[in-house]
Description:
2 copies of one chain form a homodimer. By secondary structure, chain A is α+β, with helices and mostly antiparallel strands.
Amino acid sequence: MARPTPLSGFPELLPADRFAEQHVLDHLRRTFELHGFAPIETRAVEPMDQLLRKGEIDKEVYVLRRLQAAEGEGDAGVGLHFDLTVPFARYVLEHAGKLEFPFRRYQIQKVWRGERPQEGRFREFVQADIDVVAKDELPFHFDVEIATVMAEALSGLPVPPLRIQVNNRKLLEGFYRGLGASDPAAIMRVMDKIDKLPADAIRELLAKEDLDAAQADKCLALAAIRTPDASFADQVRALGVSDPLLDEGIEELAQLVSALSDVELDGVTVTADLRIARGLDYYTGTVFETELEGFESLGSICSGGRYEKLADDGRNVYPGVGISLGVTRLLVPLIARGHLTASRSVPSAVLVALIDEESRPASNAIAQRLRARGIPTEVAAAPQKFGKQIRYAERRGIPYVWFPAAGAGDPGADEFQRGQVKDIRSGDQVYADAGLWSPPPGDLRPAVITPLDTRGATS
Amino acid sequence: MARPTPLSGFPELLPADRFAEQHVLDHLRRTFELHGFAPIETRAVEPMDQLLRKGEIDKEVYVLRRLQAAEGEGDAGVGLHFDLTVPFARYVLEHAGKLEFPFRRYQIQKVWRGERPQEGRFREFVQADIDVVAKDELPFHFDVEIATVMAEALSGLPVPPLRIQVNNRKLLEGFYRGLGASDPAAIMRVMDKIDKLPADAIRELLAKEDLDAAQADKCLALAAIRTPDASFADQVRALGVSDPLLDEGIEELAQLVSALSDVELDGVTVTADLRIARGLDYYTGTVFETELEGFESLGSICSGGRYEKLADDGRNVYPGVGISLGVTRLLVPLIARGHLTASRSVPSAVLVALIDEESRPASNAIAQRLRARGIPTEVAAAPQKFGKQIRYAERRGIPYVWFPAAGAGDPGADEFQRGQVKDIRSGDQVYADAGLWSPPPGDLRPAVITPLDTRGATS
């Protein structure tokens, strides 16, 4: 068979890069669990009628068909999920009787979209979502919690600086209504285009919605407000628009950014940014977007918000607030450009050398002693000259080579566990006992490295 | 929307059960990495021509089609992978220039098969595979390594006893050839049916392959041999058949079971079982199957073997040896019958109670102090009566409730971090400082429990 070629839009990682991804996924999981978010996984497929409830995305769905389906049987009636929100809403309804509300969950899974691949857009990609969902009522402090947990999860990642931008749809809707717009939602849809169109084009569209020049100016002035703290509130009020929903939105957004300013974050900033609207219709309050510095063209890599009706089974309504991190969208462009990888391509911290094939059980016994103390270890594949075995380790990035004592006897005997261990980076070699020696903690697992120093530091 | 119903063959877990699954997956990953196996993930889809190379399984493939594919565009030309071996072989060829051989990898992913669902057979399920693949030549000690690593990975799992059964196709082929069979592969295919057909039917089929009654008796006698050590060799030789390939097979199998008998295992036994053939054609030496005690009707839950030609790009041949654990097939029947779950439905070890809504920042600060020391913590959703907050914890299985000191001042102040913590199982309540107190290690994460005591112990 000829060498296979990659499938466009379906990224795959080499082992060293996969370690970097795993490091990020582990950090996310750890943060989510520290905050009490429970792990769930949903099946990869949903019935087509579920997937098509939001009309906008139907073009992107992959439909499944059994290859050997009976004549006329057609599609299997299911498609691959394109996000983790639709499956989560279905999961909540299906298992509502067995879940405790408010229900915090995180979900890290692949999703699929049949769209045209381009940088930052994939056909298969990993998302990491957190949501809190309640029965009937979900207090606003959960919006603050969701933002805090995701900001902490993004903090300290081996990636360029991240800018979380927060806004509130009540603030926008209230402002447009207070301004006199007859259809505030229509104004929001226009203003959502502000990054794509020049100001004059926006003014023209606003004029079509019956806003005069002064009103349009205020819309543009509102969208220009961005502050790292609650001071946005004074700037909004200075525009002289008033409305009860606007007040509510200002109050919520101020609470959120104030709470976030108390959280210690590394490489993550949180800004009230009144330009953010999120195109999708179901958000009803808080909305989030996140930019990656230097990679703004990727679009938002972490987005979400509050939806008063995540799910509804006729008896109960389930409001939710959540945020979704595009893990693949964040990491793959960095990996592809050499900004992110790991220090080795194998988990092994130690390669136990092999004197000859007969002494393999002895080398295995040494390796087993090291593993018993949590040190990832492999044994050389063949009893080549030691120089070749060292190069074997070098090519994989394994930092230590263990040379068993030559001519030792029974692998179980204590003297057999002794030998010499060489740090092949420095060349330092010391006598050691496999029951006692450990590498420095930093060498125990592959280290994530950021070779082009995007943040001025390795993690 | 009405309450959704489950999709047959697509199992989903509740949070407590997912913790049990995660515990198993973490244990597998840790074991594989301790032995130097690198993590990879392959995309979920493969080109149809790749998937259909092995003719037998084509009926099970799910083909993908873009819902909005242009008229006449048809299928997307890809299908969901039905195992992790076909994608791994493709990955090896595609990335051969960037991999170091021998290449050890583990891969834990979902796979899909469109077959009729029944107990132990799913349409979507998780597999955990380990393989070693080399260029041109792969010494036999890797067969021993693969068996050892998977036996260790299965050791100590919270499941009923597992019986790994090992055989060697060279032994079988050599035996049938030494016996005088003109088509040893045909005999192997007959003998592979030994669990499904009575002995007389097997004899009849053997007769059709031109074996006389004495020869057939020897085939049946060979299939009856099973020993926990290398003593099978004498029993095979006592049948009076000789052939060089038989000798090679005996030697390999003896090496393997001897090496495994040196490994300390908990709840796992390894047996040379000369009945095992594995139906699929590509195995060329060692073969593995695994039974779960009390669940034999599920079939083998962990299978694999040696294939001299895992992949082939025209210039190089890549031999491999590997084994695949059906994680879903192992766990879901246990979970469904109440044999396996976890002690709580949330990661939180502590619920910080809430005196009133105004003191939420104080309760948050306490929670944050606990999290900073790795203690999963959540804050009560609402300032209900303490009795209600305790029941909130109880329903989720959270073992500790933290009561902040009433009337304390600034959340940053030290006295604020003090309070009382109650073990709600025993009712014991003590004064504690959020910067110092920790739960016992066993309470830190949800404990895996085996309520029906399938192994006489909880893990």
